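Typical record was shown:
=====
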Amino acid sequence: MEKLKMIEAGFIKKEMPKFNVGDTVKVLTKIPEGPDKFRLHPFEGVVIAQSGSGIKLNFTVRKVSFGEGIERVFPLYSPSIERIEIIRSGKVKRAKLYYLRGKIGKRATKIENKEEKAQ
């Protein structure tokens, strides 16, 4: 088992920020537009789930666009991810926020901030 962790540590080259479920993040992915050109496409939403560990860590981001919920699963150490920006940090009591799928409008995106809860 230790050999597997050593091999995985060799593959992890770029540093990613630490974020948790409930945080609002902006994921910038590379979209190829030519043989040697690419553009950055942002996907901003709430992290509703994390699964896996080590190099196989995946996270699911959900956003509501024009009244439709859109979810996208990203591998954390994918070469197509340029960077991840943490917009807002949220305080939740669950590991998976699948209940947000049933919410509509502002209730689907509003999660308590850690700062608001502390006061």
The longest helix spans residues 2-11. The mean pLDDT is 87.
